[in-house]
Structures
1.
Amino acid sequence: MDTTEEKAMEAEVLERINRGIIMRTGAYLTNDHFLISSGRHAREYVEKRLVTTEPAFTEGLGNIIAQHFAPSPVDVVLTSGIGATILGYCVAKAHPSRPKLLYAVKGKGKEGKTEVVLPREFFPFVYRGSSALIVEDILTTGSTIRALIRMVEERGGRVVGIGSLWNRNTGIKFHCPFFALVNRNFPTYLREECPLCQKGVPLNTEIGPAVGGSPRRGRGTRRTGS
Ligand SMILES: [Zn+2]
Protein backbone atom coordinates (compact mmCIF):
# COMPACT_ATOMS: atom_id res chain seq x y z
CA MET A 1 0.00 0.00 0.00
CA ASP A 2 1.46 3.38 -0.94
CA THR A 3 1.24 6.49 1.18
CA THR A 4 -1.60 7.98 -0.87
CA GLU A 5 -3.72 4.93 -0.12
CA GLU A 6 -2.71 5.04 3.52
CA LYS A 7 -3.65 8.70 3.72
CA ALA A 8 -7.03 8.03 2.10
CA MET A 9 -7.68 5.23 4.59
CA GLU A 10 -6.63 7.41 7.48
CA ALA A 11 -8.96 10.17 6.27
CA GLU A 12 -11.79 7.66 6.02
CA VAL A 13 -11.19 6.41 9.57
CA LEU A 14 -11.12 9.99 10.88
CA GLU A 15 -14.34 10.79 9.04
CA ARG A 16 -16.00 7.74 10.58
CA ILE A 17 -14.89 8.85 14.05
CA ASN A 18 -16.19 12.38 13.46
CA ARG A 19 -19.46 11.03 12.09
CA GLY A 20 -19.75 8.88 15.21
CA ILE A 21 -19.30 11.95 17.42
CA ILE A 22 -21.98 13.83 15.49
CA MET A 23 -24.23 10.76 15.71
CA ARG A 24 -23.95 10.87 19.50
CA THR A 25 -25.55 14.33 19.52
CA GLY A 26 -28.61 12.76 17.86
CA ALA A 27 -28.08 14.96 14.80
CA TYR A 28 -27.26 12.08 12.48
CA LEU A 29 -29.80 9.31 12.06
CA THR A 30 -29.58 6.25 9.85
CA ASN A 31 -31.47 3.06 8.98
CA ASP A 32 -34.85 4.68 8.85
CA HIS A 33 -37.18 6.30 6.34
CA PHE A 34 -37.15 10.09 6.38
CA LEU A 35 -38.81 12.90 4.53
CA ILE A 36 -36.16 15.57 4.02
CA SER A 37 -36.61 19.30 3.40
CA SER A 38 -36.53 18.98 -0.39
CA GLY A 39 -39.59 16.70 -0.16
CA ARG A 40 -37.49 13.68 -1.13
CA HIS A 41 -37.08 10.50 0.90
CA ALA A 42 -33.86 9.17 2.42
CA ARG A 43 -32.48 6.49 4.72
CA GLU A 44 -30.33 9.00 6.57
CA TYR A 45 -31.03 12.35 8.12
CA VAL A 46 -28.91 15.20 9.46
CA GLU A 47 -30.62 17.54 11.87
CA LYS A 48 -28.73 20.83 11.65
CA ARG A 49 -30.10 22.16 14.93
CA LEU A 50 -28.88 19.23 17.01
CA VAL A 51 -25.34 19.19 15.74
CA THR A 52 -24.04 21.80 18.21
CA THR A 53 -26.03 20.76 21.29
CA GLU A 54 -23.15 19.01 23.09
CA PRO A 55 -20.61 21.70 24.06
CA ALA A 56 -17.80 19.22 24.71
CA PHE A 57 -18.26 17.65 21.27
CA THR A 58 -18.53 21.04 19.57
CA GLU A 59 -15.31 22.10 21.26
CA GLY A 60 -13.52 18.95 20.17
CA LEU A 61 -14.71 19.24 16.57
CA GLY A 62 -13.99 22.99 16.51
CA ASN A 63 -10.51 22.21 17.73
CA ILE A 64 -9.88 19.88 14.77
CA ILE A 65 -10.93 22.62 12.34
CA ALA A 66 -8.73 25.15 14.16
CA GLN A 67 -5.74 22.79 14.03
CA HIS A 68 -6.27 22.20 10.33
CA PHE A 69 -6.04 25.94 9.67
CA ALA A 70 -3.45 26.65 12.38
CA PRO A 71 -0.64 27.33 9.85
CA SER A 72 -2.68 30.23 8.36
CA PRO A 73 -2.73 33.47 10.34
CA VAL A 74 -6.37 34.45 10.85
CA ASP A 75 -7.70 37.85 11.96
CA VAL A 76 -11.33 36.84 12.18
CA VAL A 77 -13.48 33.75 12.22
CA LEU A 78 -16.63 34.59 10.31
CA THR A 79 -19.94 32.76 10.48
CA SER A 80 -23.61 33.21 9.74
CA GLY A 81 -26.42 31.47 11.63
CA ILE A 82 -26.64 30.38 15.24
CA GLY A 83 -25.31 26.83 14.88
CA ALA A 84 -22.35 27.97 12.78
CA THR A 85 -21.59 30.71 15.31
CA ILE A 86 -21.51 28.24 18.23
CA LEU A 87 -19.01 26.15 16.25
CA GLY A 88 -17.17 29.30 15.10
CA TYR A 89 -16.68 30.32 18.72
CA CYS A 90 -14.96 26.99 19.41
CA VAL A 91 -12.78 27.31 16.30
CA ALA A 92 -11.79 30.89 17.15
CA LYS A 93 -10.96 29.93 20.72
CA ALA A 94 -8.70 27.08 19.59
CA HIS A 95 -6.92 28.87 16.73
CA PRO A 96 -3.37 29.98 17.60
CA SER A 97 -3.87 33.45 15.97
CA ARG A 98 -6.51 34.26 18.59
CA PRO A 99 -8.89 35.61 15.96
CA LYS A 100 -11.98 37.61 16.74
CA LEU A 101 -15.35 35.97 16.17
CA LEU A 102 -17.75 37.82 13.87
CA TYR A 103 -21.10 36.83 12.45
CA ALA A 104 -23.01 38.08 9.46
CA VAL A 105 -26.78 38.26 9.29
CA LYS A 106 -28.52 36.20 6.63
CA GLY A 107 -31.26 37.40 4.33
CA LYS A 108 -32.70 36.89 0.90
CA GLY A 109 -31.83 39.41 -1.78
CA LYS A 110 -33.01 39.78 -5.36
CA GLU A 111 -34.41 36.57 -6.90
CA GLY A 112 -34.23 34.79 -3.57
CA LYS A 113 -30.43 34.73 -3.64
CA THR A 114 -28.78 34.23 -0.23
CA GLU A 115 -27.28 37.46 1.04
CA VAL A 116 -25.28 38.17 4.14
CA VAL A 117 -24.85 41.51 5.83
CA LEU A 118 -22.02 42.32 8.20
CA PRO A 119 -23.27 44.39 11.14
CA ARG A 120 -21.67 47.86 11.02
CA GLU A 121 -19.98 47.36 14.38
CA PHE A 122 -17.84 44.61 12.79
CA PHE A 123 -16.66 46.76 9.85
CA PRO A 124 -13.33 47.72 11.49
CA PHE A 125 -12.30 44.05 11.71
CA VAL A 126 -12.76 43.15 8.04
CA TYR A 127 -10.48 45.53 6.16
CA ARG A 128 -8.12 45.53 3.17
CA GLY A 129 -5.53 42.82 3.69
CA SER A 130 -7.26 41.16 6.66
CA SER A 131 -7.62 37.36 6.80
CA ALA A 132 -10.85 35.55 7.49
CA LEU A 133 -11.60 31.91 8.24
CA ILE A 134 -15.22 31.06 7.41
CA VAL A 135 -16.93 28.45 9.57
CA GLU A 136 -20.16 26.65 8.69
CA ASP A 137 -21.94 23.84 10.55
CA ILE A 138 -23.72 21.91 7.79
CA LEU A 139 -22.97 22.77 4.20
CA THR A 140 -25.82 21.90 1.86
CA THR A 141 -25.75 24.20 -1.17
CA GLY A 142 -22.78 26.40 -0.26
CA SER A 143 -24.78 29.56 -1.02
CA THR A 144 -24.17 31.06 2.44
CA ILE A 145 -20.44 30.41 2.18
CA ARG A 146 -20.28 31.98 -1.26
CA ALA A 147 -22.09 35.04 0.04
CA LEU A 148 -19.65 35.29 2.97
CA ILE A 149 -16.63 35.00 0.64
CA ARG A 150 -18.08 37.75 -1.56
CA MET A 151 -18.62 39.96 1.45
CA VAL A 152 -15.04 39.56 2.72
CA GLU A 153 -13.54 40.12 -0.72
CA GLU A 154 -15.68 43.19 -1.40
CA ARG A 155 -14.15 44.70 1.73
CA GLY A 156 -10.65 43.87 0.50
CA GLY A 157 -10.14 40.97 2.89
CA ARG A 158 -8.93 37.50 2.05
CA VAL A 159 -10.57 34.18 2.93
CA VAL A 160 -7.78 31.86 4.08
CA GLY A 161 -10.05 28.89 4.55
CA ILE A 162 -13.51 27.44 5.00
CA GLY A 163 -14.12 24.92 7.76
CA SER A 164 -17.27 22.86 8.14
CA LEU A 165 -18.58 20.01 10.28
CA TRP A 166 -20.47 18.29 7.54
CA ASN A 167 -20.32 18.77 3.81
CA ARG A 168 -23.39 17.32 2.13
CA ASN A 169 -22.42 18.65 -1.28
CA THR A 170 -19.42 16.51 -2.11
CA GLY A 171 -19.13 17.99 -5.62
CA ILE A 172 -18.70 21.54 -4.38
CA LYS A 173 -15.61 23.63 -5.23
CA PHE A 174 -14.45 26.89 -3.71
CA HIS A 175 -11.47 29.00 -4.71
CA CYS A 176 -10.31 29.01 -1.05
CA PRO A 177 -9.01 25.98 0.91
CA PHE A 178 -11.93 23.95 2.15
CA PHE A 179 -12.00 21.40 4.98
CA ALA A 180 -14.94 19.39 6.31
CA LEU A 181 -14.86 16.82 9.10
CA VAL A 182 -17.43 14.71 7.30
CA ASN A 183 -18.01 14.64 3.54
CA ARG A 184 -21.12 12.65 2.94
CA ASN A 185 -23.94 13.12 0.54
CA PHE A 186 -26.38 10.28 1.09
CA PRO A 187 -28.81 9.20 -1.62
CA THR A 188 -32.28 10.71 -1.68
CA TYR A 189 -35.28 9.54 -3.68
CA LEU A 190 -38.42 10.92 -5.21
CA ARG A 191 -41.39 9.48 -3.35
CA GLU A 192 -42.49 7.55 -6.45
CA GLU A 193 -39.06 5.97 -6.78
CA CYS A 194 -38.27 5.46 -3.10
CA PRO A 195 -37.13 1.85 -2.43
CA LEU A 196 -38.30 2.16 1.21
CA CYS A 197 -41.80 3.18 0.16
CA GLN A 198 -41.81 0.28 -2.29
CA LYS A 199 -40.93 -2.09 0.54
CA GLY A 200 -43.70 -0.61 2.66
CA VAL A 201 -41.36 0.77 5.34
CA PRO A 202 -43.39 3.40 7.22
CA LEU A 203 -42.18 6.99 6.96
CA ASN A 204 -40.72 8.35 10.20
CA THR A 205 -43.19 11.07 11.13
CA GLU A 206 -41.36 12.14 14.31
CA ILE A 207 -38.40 13.57 12.49
CA GLY A 208 -38.14 15.66 9.37
CA PRO A 209 -39.41 18.98 8.13
CA ALA A 210 -43.10 19.79 8.18
CA VAL A 211 -44.36 16.24 8.11
CA GLY A 212 -48.04 16.46 7.19
CA GLY A 213 -47.67 20.23 6.77
CA SER A 214 -47.33 20.94 10.48
CA PRO A 215 -44.50 23.14 11.71
CA ARG A 216 -41.46 21.39 13.16
CA ARG A 217 -41.88 21.10 16.88
CA GLY A 218 -40.27 19.13 19.63
CA ARG A 219 -38.39 16.85 17.30
CA GLY A 220 -35.49 14.94 18.73
CA THR A 221 -36.62 15.57 22.27
CA ARG A 222 -37.61 12.78 24.56
CA ARG A 223 -40.56 12.97 26.88
CA THR A 224 -39.30 13.70 30.33
CA GLY A 225 -42.48 12.68 32.11
CA SER A 226 -43.29 16.19 33.27
ZN1 LIG B 1 -40.03 6.68 0.83
2.
Amino acid sequence: MRSRFSAFVTANWSYVLATWHPEHRPDGGEATLASDSQHGRWLSLQVLESGVASDDQSGWVRFCAWYQDRDGLHGHHEMSQFVRLDGCWVYTLGQFLALPKSLLPGPNAPCPCGSGKKLKKCCRHIG
Ligand SMILES: [Zn+2]
Protein backbone atom coordinates (compact mmCIF):
# COMPACT_ATOMS: atom_id res chain seq x y z
CA MET A 1 0.00 0.00 0.00
CA ARG A 2 2.64 2.53 1.03
CA SER A 3 4.91 1.37 -1.76
CA ARG A 4 2.09 1.93 -4.26
CA PHE A 5 1.55 5.43 -2.90
CA SER A 6 5.28 6.15 -3.31
CA ALA A 7 5.02 4.89 -6.88
CA PHE A 8 2.16 7.32 -7.55
CA VAL A 9 4.22 10.18 -6.09
CA THR A 10 7.22 9.37 -8.24
CA ALA A 11 5.12 8.46 -11.32
CA ASN A 12 6.55 4.95 -11.30
CA TRP A 13 3.70 3.63 -13.46
CA SER A 14 5.29 0.26 -14.18
CA TYR A 15 5.30 -0.47 -10.44
CA VAL A 16 1.72 0.78 -10.05
CA LEU A 17 0.62 -1.60 -12.82
CA ALA A 18 2.73 -4.50 -11.57
CA THR A 19 0.95 -4.33 -8.19
CA TRP A 20 -2.48 -4.02 -9.83
CA HIS A 21 -4.43 -7.23 -10.37
CA PRO A 22 -4.33 -8.00 -14.13
CA GLU A 23 -8.12 -8.29 -14.29
CA HIS A 24 -8.61 -4.84 -12.76
CA ARG A 25 -5.90 -2.75 -14.43
CA PRO A 26 -7.09 0.45 -16.14
CA ASP A 27 -7.50 0.46 -19.90
CA GLY A 28 -4.59 2.19 -21.55
CA GLY A 29 -2.05 1.17 -18.91
CA GLU A 30 0.78 3.58 -18.18
CA ALA A 31 -0.48 6.25 -20.58
CA THR A 32 -3.82 6.46 -18.77
CA LEU A 33 -2.15 6.67 -15.36
CA ALA A 34 0.23 9.36 -16.56
CA SER A 35 -2.52 11.55 -18.03
CA ASP A 36 -4.80 11.09 -14.99
CA SER A 37 -2.02 12.27 -12.72
CA GLN A 38 -1.21 15.46 -14.61
CA HIS A 39 -3.89 17.44 -12.83
CA GLY A 40 -2.55 17.14 -9.32
CA ARG A 41 0.34 16.26 -7.09
CA TRP A 42 0.19 13.60 -4.38
CA LEU A 43 1.42 14.90 -1.05
CA SER A 44 0.97 12.52 1.84
CA LEU A 45 -0.71 9.31 2.90
CA GLN A 46 -2.64 8.51 6.07
CA VAL A 47 -3.44 4.81 6.53
CA LEU A 48 -6.58 4.81 8.68
CA GLU A 49 -7.19 1.10 9.16
CA SER A 50 -6.36 -2.19 7.51
CA GLY A 51 -7.08 -5.86 7.86
CA VAL A 52 -6.31 -9.28 6.44
CA ALA A 53 -8.81 -12.11 5.99
CA SER A 54 -8.32 -15.19 8.16
CA ASP A 55 -7.11 -17.21 5.16
CA ASP A 56 -4.41 -14.55 4.56
CA GLN A 57 -5.36 -14.34 0.87
CA SER A 58 -7.18 -11.01 0.85
CA GLY A 59 -6.97 -7.75 2.69
CA TRP A 60 -8.18 -4.20 2.74
CA VAL A 61 -6.81 -0.77 3.56
CA ARG A 62 -8.76 2.40 4.26
CA PHE A 63 -6.68 5.48 3.70
CA CYS A 64 -6.72 9.17 3.00
CA ALA A 65 -4.21 10.44 0.45
CA TRP A 66 -3.77 14.19 0.20
CA TYR A 67 -3.20 15.87 -3.11
CA GLN A 68 -3.03 19.35 -4.45
CA ASP A 69 -4.27 20.76 -7.72
CA ARG A 70 -5.17 24.19 -9.06
CA ASP A 71 -8.23 24.34 -6.79
CA GLY A 72 -6.36 23.63 -3.58
CA LEU A 73 -5.81 20.73 -1.27
CA HIS A 74 -7.97 17.60 -1.42
CA GLY A 75 -8.26 14.42 0.58
CA HIS A 76 -8.83 11.21 -1.39
CA HIS A 77 -10.56 8.82 1.02
CA GLU A 78 -10.67 5.25 -0.26
CA MET A 79 -11.22 1.67 0.81
CA SER A 80 -8.86 -0.49 -1.25
CA GLN A 81 -9.08 -4.23 -1.67
CA PHE A 82 -6.02 -6.41 -2.12
CA VAL A 83 -5.55 -10.09 -2.85
CA ARG A 84 -2.53 -12.33 -2.92
CA LEU A 85 -1.45 -13.29 -6.40
CA ASP A 86 1.49 -15.68 -6.65
CA GLY A 87 2.33 -14.72 -3.08
CA CYS A 88 2.36 -10.95 -3.64
CA TRP A 89 -0.30 -8.47 -2.58
CA VAL A 90 -1.99 -6.82 -5.55
CA TYR A 91 -4.66 -4.13 -5.72
CA THR A 92 -8.05 -5.16 -7.08
CA LEU A 93 -10.74 -2.55 -6.46
CA GLY A 94 -11.10 0.70 -4.62
CA GLN A 95 -14.26 2.29 -3.31
CA PHE A 96 -14.12 6.07 -3.11
CA LEU A 97 -15.60 7.41 0.10
CA ALA A 98 -16.75 10.84 1.18
CA LEU A 99 -14.20 12.69 3.27
CA PRO A 100 -15.60 12.93 6.79
CA LYS A 101 -15.06 16.11 8.77
CA SER A 102 -13.14 14.07 11.31
CA LEU A 103 -10.35 13.59 8.77
CA LEU A 104 -9.97 17.28 8.08
CA PRO A 105 -7.04 18.69 9.98
CA GLY A 106 -7.76 21.55 12.38
CA PRO A 107 -6.38 25.02 11.67
CA ASN A 108 -3.47 24.46 14.03
CA ALA A 109 -2.62 20.98 12.73
CA PRO A 110 0.35 20.50 10.42
CA CYS A 111 -0.67 21.06 6.82
CA PRO A 112 -1.12 17.76 4.90
CA CYS A 113 1.03 19.18 2.10
CA GLY A 114 4.07 18.46 4.27
CA SER A 115 5.34 22.04 4.43
CA GLY A 116 5.73 21.81 8.22
CA LYS A 117 3.53 24.89 8.65
CA LYS A 118 0.18 24.99 10.39
CA LEU A 119 -2.75 24.53 8.04
CA LYS A 120 -4.13 28.01 8.73
CA LYS A 121 -0.82 29.51 7.59
CA CYS A 122 -0.46 27.26 4.57
CA CYS A 123 -2.84 25.73 2.00
CA ARG A 124 -6.04 26.55 3.91
CA HIS A 125 -8.54 25.62 1.25
CA ILE A 126 -9.49 21.96 1.57
CA GLY A 127 -12.17 20.45 -0.59
ZN1 LIG B 1 0.19 23.35 2.83
